[in-house]
Specification:
The chain is globular. It has one domain. The protein has a four-stranded antiparallel β-sheet. By secondary structure, it is of the alpha+beta class. It is about 30% helix and about 25% strand.
Length: about 70
């Protein structure tokens, strides 16, 4: 399963939780990319850029490290 990291500031901007589990939620891929002020690394760009302005379904389970989200699709 693919994972992405969303930092504390991004979580605030995107109304996501950094610490708590999150039920699956749709977020626009380009919005995630744009919310990272310093820009994302190659790993994250390779996952998110092909999705463009399309939605990506992400979630955080209770065992996930802070800020890490699994991509459902």
């Amino acid at each position: 399963m693919k994972q992405i990291y969303i930092d504390v500031d991004q979580c605030q901007e995107l109304s996501l939780s950094y610490w708590e589990p999150v039920e699956p939620i749709w977020v626009i891929a380009s919005r995630i990319l744009d919310s990272k002020r310093q820009g994302y690394d190659k790993h994250h760009k390779e996952i998110l850029e092909p999705m463009g302005d399309g939605p990506v379904l992400i979630y955080r389970d209770k065992l996930a490290a802070p800020g890490w989200y699994d991509i459902v699709r």
